[in-house]
Task: inverse folding
């Protein structure tokens, strides 16, 4: 994985497979604490304690088509490489929360990468799932909520090119306003 | 550029409503970009970006884009499945932005399967 955005794209796939209907992606950059946090929270079917303990193992997967599952192990490795950690909480039939922290200015922290493109792909490819995105940089923050957009556009599909263009514009604007340094 | 607001969204909605009544919204092609860990790590996001750009440039409305997880052929990623209405799905292997543009122009728009890039014909079963 070359960027943190690629990790997000990958981890959210887990939420999609867990039949989530709302996925929250929260990014926080704290210059003073030299800390970057990425949280992914879903309302999918969750995991029991036994499963939760096994997901860091690269040789654990719920799939049968191959014998490895690298998504979370790679994210854990990326976080730890930059002096951070990966924490996971899950409640069966309620949802899962994944929280990765990184050293914001650590040399080995991957760049955030194309977060706009990542969010667009997630929205276009999962039209029945709502996404809430919040990005905070010190005291400035930006939010995007597909539930708000959906309410406005009524019967127009959210993956309509004009709507996607609008969402892309809104996120780009928001990110430049908060001046993300990741 | 002026800041985008909810009012802009309302205007877009009205514009789209007018256009929607003028054409039939039938889906002719479904394109799936496989985006498991393996796909993403080998460039599936760039393939997806290219596909969405091509769709926007060509202004076609009958192509649906979606993603799926890994199907166990990680070594051949990025994989793209093109499913035309009433025909078997075609799976392309080792796709990159250039191949994606060719597949879009020749297969999705013109209907010619791009044999040199094809991995298989048919559906996989994912569990």
Result:
């Amino acid at each position: 994985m070359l960027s943190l955005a690629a990790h997000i794209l990958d981890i959210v796939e887990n939420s999609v497979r867990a039949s989530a209907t709302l996925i929250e992606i929260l990014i926080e950059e704290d210059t003073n604490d030299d800390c970057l946090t990425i949280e992914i929270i879903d309302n999918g079917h969750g995991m029991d304690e036994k499963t939760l303990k096994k997901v860091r193992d690269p040789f654990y997967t719920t799939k049968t088509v191959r014998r490895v599952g690298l998504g979370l192990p790679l994210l854990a490795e990326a976080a730890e490489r930059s002096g951070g950690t990966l924490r996971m909480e899950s409640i069966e039939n309620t949802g899962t929360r994944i929280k990765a922290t990184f050293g914001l200015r650590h040399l080995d922290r991957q760049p955030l990468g194309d977060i706009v493109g990542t969010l667009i792909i997630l929205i276009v490819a999962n039209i029945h799932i709502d996404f809430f995105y919040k990005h905070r940089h010190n005291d400035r923050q930006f939010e995007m909520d597909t539930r708000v957009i959906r309410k406005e556009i009524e019967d127009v599909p959210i993956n309509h090119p004009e709507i996607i263009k609008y969402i892309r514009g809104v996120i780009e604007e928001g990110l430049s306003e908060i001046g993300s340094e990741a | 550029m002026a800041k985008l607001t909810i009012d802009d969204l309302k205007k877009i909605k009205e514009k789209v409503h007018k256009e929607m009544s003028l054409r039939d919204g039938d889906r002719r092609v479904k394109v799936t970009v496989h985006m498991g860990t393996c796909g993403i790590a080998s460039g599936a996001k760039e393939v997806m970006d290219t596909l969405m750009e091509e769709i926007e440039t060509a202004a076609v409305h009958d192509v649906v884009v979606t993603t799926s997880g890994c199907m166990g052929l990680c070594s051949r990623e990025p994989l793209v499945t093109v499913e035309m209405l009433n025909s078997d799905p075609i799976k392309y292997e080792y796709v990159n932005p250039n191949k994606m543009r060719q597949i879009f122009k020749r297969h999705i728009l013109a209907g010619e399967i791009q044999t040199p890039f094809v991995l298989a014909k048919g559906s996989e079963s994912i569990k």
